[in-house]
Amino acid sequence: MGMVLVRIDDRLIHGQVVENWMKFLKINHVVVVNDFVASDRTQKALFSMAVPEHTKVSILTIAQAKEAILNGQFEGDRAMLLLGCPGDVLNLIDGGVKIREVNVGGIHYSSEKRQILKAISVSKEDIQAFQKLDRLGVRLEARMVPDDEKIDIMEIIKRETG
Amino acid sequence: MTGLIVITHGDFGRQLVKAAQVILGEQRDVWALSLHEKDGLETLSERIGKILKEGNKQSEGKIILVDMFGGTPANASLKFVNDQEVEIISGVNLPMLITALNYRRSLPLRELARLVREKGEQSILDVKKKFLDKVSKAEK
Question: What is the rounded distance in angstroms from the CA atom of residue B131 to the CA atom of residue B47?
Fold first, then answer.
């Protein structure tokens, strides 16, 4: 099965992910791909506690994730990849990982960002990364929870950036 | 699908349903009843009765989730204690409501009620202790 869902969500593991996406897609392995979290013991413990019992959880740096995926380590699982920003997805793809479709769940607002959807705010770097992903043919759908309507995030970005 | 009625003092239940919908998306066959200062036991019972009657068209049984055993929402629900199609659980919290919403299509009424109660009991944790145990285990 391998990677069932690749999701950009800077809250990483949280309620929507655990109670909704994981059940909806029958995920048995949650893979957090984030350089900061993977190199911080406290953050790692926090996120590994946040998944239901009997669910595998891996917390990897981008480099580690690249290697794990290319070595086929998630092949036997129904894995869900969680990343904090589109730039991290781009890094994985640049490293040779094949990703066709990305779900964008949430990127929180801060003063240097621009809110384009209820749960999605993007920085200049985020927009550039999304545009690159788009050029690479990656489908980018904004959707917080499975029942929500899929929104083409590139259309929103095009409109917002005119 | 089992219908859910959340009954609480003030608007706690209404907001709890909203909170669950942030996580699960919009839901149908969920009712929230608020008990305000002007409301009495009888009027609350009547409102519950009305939902039980009207909602029964689509729902297969209902779980009433109340905030506190001994409070008016729980006492008003007791009127329906002999109804085979109704379960009543107290101490409602977000994990309980989410569990009820997630499993109400797949479990029969009695089993769903049991799962919801168990989930509620398991959901109260000393977070600090749990976290520190986890970190110290990871260090060993």
Answer: 43
Q: Per the structure, how many domains does chain B have?
A: 1
Q: Domains in chain A, start-ordered, CATH in brackets?
A: 2-161 (3.40.35.10)
Q: Give the tens place of pLDDT for each residue, B115-128.
A: 999 999 999 999 99
- Cβ pair B22:A146 closer than 8 A: no
> Structural domain of residue B18, as residue ranges?
3-139
Residues of B in contact with A41 (CB under 8 A): 135, 138
Angle at B16 between CA B109 and CA A9, to 5 degrees: 105
More confident residue, A108 or B140: A108
Question: Which residue in A19, A45, A147 is closest to B98 by CB distance?
Answer: A19
| Residue A15 with chain B: CB contacts under 8 Å | 22-23, 98
Picking from B4, B127, B25, B2, the residue whose alpha carbon sits closest to that of residue B77 is B4
Helices assigned H by DSSP within chain B: 12-24, 41-55, 72-77, 94-103, 109-122, 127-139
Q: How many CB atoms lie within 10 A of CB A121?
A: 19
pTM of the model: 0.85
Res B21: pLDDT: 96
A19–B26: do the CB atoms touch at under 8 Å? Answer: no
